[in-house]
Amino acid sequence: MKIAFHGAARVVTGSKHLITLNNNVQILLDCGLFQGMGEVTDKLNGYFGFDPATVTCMVLSHAHIDHCGLLPRLVAEGFQGNVYCTPATMDLTRILLLDSAKIQEQDAAYLNKKRGPGQETEEPLYTEEDVIKAMALFKVVDYNTDFEISPEISLNLSDAGHILGSAAVHLTIKENETETRLTFSGDVGRYGDLLLKSPQRFAQADYIVMESTYGDSLHKDLDPIEDMLYEIINQTCNIKKGKVIIPAFSVGRTQELLYALNGLELKHKLPDVAYYVDSPLSEKATQVLKNHPEVYNNGVKEVMKTDHDVFSFKGLKFIESVEESKALNNDPRPCVIISASGMAEGGRVRHHIRNNISSQKNTILMVGYCEPNSLGGKLLAGNKTVYMFREAYDVVAEVKSIRSMSAHGDYEDLLHFLSCQQPQQVKKLFLVHGEYKVQQHFAERLVSHGFRQVEIPELHQEFSL
């Protein structure tokens, strides 16, 4: 048996890991889109590193685009197997992929409109029709259920606490009378998350593929999210009379922001300005979360005893049409605009940033991880000039961040996730979904905790198990 790493290898995006059995059965773990990788992004997304037509089946850990976003392309290039995931992940993936296809088609049309005669036409990576074909392959698997993919392959999914429906993947593979247990963490959530339950314990594994996004960071000892939101909104909107632009992923981060803002209203501290969620996808994702109250932690359930809708508050409006979105740019009144994507790499938020980045009265607030080469990453790094739609813009607006708003666990959370394992029984642990320097630090920490063989794969590198 072999495993090859075709994405999220020494970077935090493009999750794609291919297991090949001795009988050539192939299991793909995730099929994510590379995002925010600068000029090489399109090239990375155009080459899988393997033949999609030979992949037997796929297991999807969760619905974030960097884990599912290349699935329609995989199908278009010949994949015909089943895609296994939780019911909530299937629901979210459908709306996320349809939105992704729509954004790609719109961005391609926008760029083509700006190009002169004779210039090469921009093509979207995939279309809504490709998404519909991909979704027909989905099969749902409930948490903590042993599911037989084939006589030699058994699947179990445990709650990873990252976003609604997110799972750690546990495979039991029988070859030549030998049983091998492999765990893929997916993305690990936080213990004590604002909304969701904590990650679950899982059975002993022989091999572990482990995310490492915050492998050298701690989220503790940071100011409460509500207090930080209040300070930034009050300073920008009430004192400077500007706008707060918040790039936020439609699934997870947007709902956390709405919950925190609702908390301010319950405490009678919410600044009296207009609040816009400018993402049709975010509204759909919020509704999906409302339909799954069983995922909420006890703190949220307690609030719900007196507040039936924890994602709604005075002054909130969801923006649907493109016309309404454009109108926000011509409205001079102070407001808060939450819009996708979280790394500011696509979607409506780039237009809002472009229209507000040149005024010092405005604030661009980053609330999650950004790949260093993404627009969000460059803003967080303090770049004085950034490029959007192939034009340069000076960064005059204030750039702030709330680092504690992360759906990814820090290194203590990651170690807690692994605490159910006997390190000496883990033959090899592979670190993925992290920046290389961060992974090197986390690898040292893992070795000190008894994990003897920790590997940090390069892109397309293959290992025998």
From TrEMBL:
Domain Beta-Casp: 254-379
GO molecular function term, any single one: RNA endonuclease activity
Aminoacyl-tRNA synthetase in keyword set: no
SMART domains xref list: Beta-Casp, Lactamase_B
Residue ranges of every copy of the Metallo-beta-lactamase domain listed in the record: 13-233
Segments passing through the bilayer: none
Keyword terms: Hydrolase
One Pfam family here: Lactamase_B_6
InterPro entries according to UniProt: Beta_Casp, MBL, Metallo-B-lactamas, RibonucZ/Hydroxyglut_hydro, RMMBL
UniProt cross-references to PANTHER family, sorted A to Z: CLEAVAGE AND POLYADENYLATION SPECIFICITY FACTOR FAMILY MEMBER (PTHR11203), INTEGRATOR COMPLEX SUBUNIT 11 (PTHR11203:SF37)
Name under which the protein is recorded: Metallo-beta-lactamase family protein
Species this chain originates from: Pedobacter nutrimenti
